[in-house]
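hey so i finally got around to running both of the ones u sent me last week. sorry it took forever, my laptop kept dying halfway thru and i had to restart like 3 times lol. anyway pasting them below in the order u listed, first the sequence line then the structure token line for each. didnt double check formatting much so if smth looks off just lmk and ill redo it

first one:
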Amino acid sequence: MNVFTGKKVLILGDRDGITGEAIEECLRETEAEIVFSSTECFV
């Protein structure tokens, strides 16, 4: 059991930093349910 067990996750990545896809890939092995994932440009 880990901290993501049974959790729903919203991912907001940064275009110039860590992308949403990279964060999503890190969470694939957990039991988290990824509800939304996006990469945005924060200016």
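and the second one:
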Amino acid sequence: METFSAISMIFILGGVLGYILELFYRRIRHGKWINPGFLAGPFLPLYGFGTLFLYILCLWGDRTFAVTIPGKLCLLLLIAVVMTLVELITGLIFVYGMRVKLWDYSALWGNFKGIICPLFSLIWGLIGAFYYFVLHRYLLGAVAFLKENPFDTFIVGLFFGVFLVDVCYSFGVVKKLRSLAKKSRSIIGLENLKVRLRTLAAAHHRGGKFLLPFRNDGEVEDAVNERKTPVVEDDPKNER
């Protein structure tokens, strides 16, 4: 139980810190506060799982091959590859399963279906290097401490209770978006749609909904149907 609580805290910390990082990135990019990810709450599962993978890879690497400089370079390369694969699998599931694109690298060189690209693989590698050389030792200490002092069990239980509710609500939203995408035979860009909804709210002097931007079904459908905006793109299934 203590080990589960400690591992869960890594997942939680990674997801929350990733959310903060993406939140400020979108503020700089769009000039607006855009709630990142497909969940309503302040958490990104991709970063949570990514942090877990970083922890496991670095722990395994330190115990096996990452004892020399070439070994450490191989570990960083492995991190970049694994994180890119996590991003690819997540992106493909949402694009082909839900007809929703959570992020879009289509404008970047060497991208694959707008889901992964060399630039962000490099960024994942740099994040992995920062984690390995700066953060990993502290996370090891934190895990050891939590195993001996499992006071975080309440926090973990509370988090997963709220997380489950958020996941159920958010998949309900994605299901509605999937229905709209099927009607228009398109893929909906989630971030672009959120930006468009905030822009429309400002134009009509309404307060934009940060946590629940898809609450009004009529506004969402209108935004999706506005082909002049970069909210939708052709469904790759239509090419077959």
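quick thing i noticed on the 2nd:
The longest strand covers residues 186-189.
anyway thats it, ttyl
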